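Regression test case RT-17, inverse folding.

Input:
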């Protein structure tokens, strides 16, 4: 594994060529077994993606940074949905995320955005899923071209990239000067009197 907080387990060359056209799927796995499952799938020749981030943990005498799954209990894998039994039989795999007893593919663009974010090495962290807000595109820097939702958290601008199927998101610190609006702002509901302040505000 490289120094970057990421984990991909690409298949070997003829197998990768045979599988690359298959879509990405999200696998729900046992907590704290994400890396073990990723290694097993790698050994079976599957292409997958286990995004990680730097988590600061306090020990008895010090604070240490450790690589932790960006989506605890999940990882992503390309495979033929008609031949998913080997995936389901892999120790540690609970299920393939889907609907109506069938696997549901993850949007390719969403996977690409998360891969680009992790590979760029910029600080990022898990974030509550956001389904609404103004979409923006980063115009310069290592994340050039990425689209996401720009929010304002206590005057600190962050770009939120979402994986719709998992209802999970990732937040990355970003200078608002580097982004441009992709879609116009949506009308916002007027706040009720005496309502509590929101910790996360959608920003243009």
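Golden output:
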């Amino acid at each position: 594994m490289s120094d970057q907080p990421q984990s991909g387990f690409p298949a070997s060359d003829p197998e990768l060529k045979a599988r690359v056209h298959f879509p990405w799927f999200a696998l729900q796995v046992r907590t704290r077994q994400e890396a073990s499952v990723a290694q097993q799938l790698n050994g079976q020749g599957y292409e997958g993606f286990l995004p990680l981030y730097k988590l600061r943990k306090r020990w008895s005498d010090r604070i240490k940074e450790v690589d932790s799954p960006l989506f605890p209990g999940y990882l992503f894998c390309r495979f033929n949905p008609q031949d998913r039994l080997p995936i389901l039989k892999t120790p540690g795999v609970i299920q393939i995320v889907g609907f109506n007893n069938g696997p549901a593919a993850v949007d390719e663009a969403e996977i690409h955005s998360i891969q680009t974010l992790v590979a760029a090495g910029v600080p990022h962290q898990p974030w509550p899923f956001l389904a609404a807000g103004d979409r923006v595109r980063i115009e310069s820097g290592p994340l050039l071209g990425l689209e996401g939702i720009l929010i304002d958290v206590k005057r600190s601008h962050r770009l939120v990239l979402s994986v719709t199927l998992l209802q999970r998101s990732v937040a990355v610190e970003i200078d608002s000067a580097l982004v441009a609006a992709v879609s116009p702002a949506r009308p916002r509901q007027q706040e009720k009197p005496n309502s509590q302040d929101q910790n996360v505000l959608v920003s243009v």
